[in-house]
């Protein structure tokens, strides 16, 4: 198995954009008729529905046709092609922002990333309610519906608009996290919580958010978004500043403000 060439990645990206667009249309159709009675619980506050599962089946089926040799990491586990020892892996969240979707809050997305040897080389995020598709491939820049996007050049934390997410389980580090949030609330233009980390990262890549941070993340939450931010000229790290955001369960992303945001979090996170 060899790494896809830039030309091959362009073709893969185009096909992935179309499958994400189709999946977004499916989500919007189902959202009109969905009932909270259809909700299942995977764990504490960890919600899933038939929509998540059917959307994942759609995406996985299409990705198998695009790259039959690739393995998968998926949120709902509907595929049996394990990622162990595979260099090329699709990482998929068929519905990022499930709780928003279930309550008909129009902030949810489809996130599809392609990883080579642990490094995201392609990312496509569809913000379904907005009808926007964000996409990037390694070395090709980041784009939204045909327009190139870039991270913010704002380097001052005090003048930055930041995004975060709140854990819905594993609250062991909440005191530290609240200390971080308390500091950033007082030393920025504000904090926002969208409820979809894929959208948060797409907004960082677009320069809407200057920075984003969160912990208790999974690879499918961030794989596509990491590629977007980096190709838009931004930086992504874990809370230590190391390159372990994909599997490290914590992430800081930003443009010029990334160093200041990293320092603020490192000083308050053990």
Short description:
The protein is an alpha+beta fold and 270 residues long. It is 35% helix and 26% strand. It has two domains: 6-149, Fructose-1,6-Bisphosphatase, Chain A, domain 1 (2-Layer Sandwich), CATH 3.30.540; 157-266, D-Maltodextrin-Binding Protein, domain 2.
Task: Give a verbal description of the structure.
It is a single chain. The chain has two domains: 6-149, Fructose-1,6-Bisphosphatase, Chain A, domain 1 (2-Layer Sandwich); 157-266, D-Maltodextrin-Binding Protein, domain 2 (3-Layer(aba) Sandwich), CATH 3.40.190. The chain has a seven-stranded mixed beta sheet, sandwiched between helices. Strand 1 (40-43) and strand 2 (46-48) form a beta hairpin. The N and C termini lie far apart (40 Å). Helix 1 (6-33) runs antiparallel to helix 2 (50-66) and helix 5 packs parallel to helix 6 (219-231). The model has no long low-confidence stretch (mean pLDDT 92). 48% of the residues are buried. It has seven helices and 14 strands. It has helices at 6-33, 50-66, 98-102, 174-186, 197-205, 219-231, 258-266, and strands spanning 40-43, 46-48, 71-74, 88-96, 109-116, 119-127, 132-137, 142-144, 147-149, 161-164, 190-192, 211-215, 235-237, 250-254. With 270 residues, the protein is of the alpha+beta class.
Tell me the domain tally.
2
Which structural class do the helices and strands define? alpha+beta
Oligomeric state of the chains in view: single chain
Task: Give average pLDDT, whole number.
Answer: 92
Q: Would you report the number of β strands?
A: 14
Q: So, CATH architecture of the largest domain?
A: 2-Layer Sandwich
Largest sheet: 7 strands, mixed
Shape: globular
Order of helices and strands: HEEHEEHEEEEEEHEHEHEEH
Our count of helices gives 7
Q: Span between N and C termini?
A: 40 Å
According to CATH, the fold-level topology of the largest domain is: Fructose-1,6-Bisphosphatase, Chain A, domain 1
Radius of gyration: 17 Å
What is the beta-strand fraction?
A: 25-35%
Strand order of the largest sheet: 3-4-5-6-7-8-9
Low-confidence stretches: none
CATH class of the largest domain: Alpha Beta
Instruction: Summarize the amount of helix as a percent range.
Output: 25-40%
Quick one: CATH superfamily of the largest domain?
Answer: Fructose-1,6-Bisphosphatase, subunit A, domain 1
């Amino acid at each position: 198995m060899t790494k896809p060439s830039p030309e091959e990645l362009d073709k893969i990206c185009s096909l992935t954009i179309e499958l994400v667009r189709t999946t977004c249309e499916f989500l919007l159709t189902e959202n009109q008729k969905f009932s909270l009675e259809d909700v299942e619980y995977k764990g504490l506050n960890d919600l899933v529905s038939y929509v998540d599962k059917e959307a994942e089946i759609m995406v996985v089926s299409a990705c198998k046709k695009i790259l039959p040799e690739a393995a998968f990491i998926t949120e709902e586990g509907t595929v049996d092609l394990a990622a162990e020892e595979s260099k090329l892996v699709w990482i998929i969240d068929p519905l990022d922002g499930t709780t928003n979707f279930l309550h008909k809050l129009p902030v949810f997305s489809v996130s599809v990333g392609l990883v080579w040897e642990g490094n995201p080389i392609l990312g496509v995020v569809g913000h379904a309610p907005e009808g926007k598709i964000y996409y990037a491939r390694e070395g090709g820049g980041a784009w939204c519906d045909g327009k190139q996007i870039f991270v913010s050049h704002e380097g001052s934390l005090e003048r930055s608009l930041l995004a975060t997410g709140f854990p819905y389980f594993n609250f062991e580090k909440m005191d530290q996290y609240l200390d971080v949030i308390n500091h950033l609330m007082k030393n920025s233009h504000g904090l926002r919580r969208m409820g979809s980390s894929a959208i948060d990262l797409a907004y960082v890549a677009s320069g809407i958010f200057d920075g984003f941070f969160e912990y208790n993340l999974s690879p499918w939450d961030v794989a596509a978004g990491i590629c977007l931010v980096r190709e838009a000229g931004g930086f992504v790290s874990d809370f230590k500043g190391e390159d372990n955001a994909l599997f490290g369960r914590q992430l800081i992303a930003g443009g010029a403000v990334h160093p200041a945001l990293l320092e603020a979090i490192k000083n308050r996170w053990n």
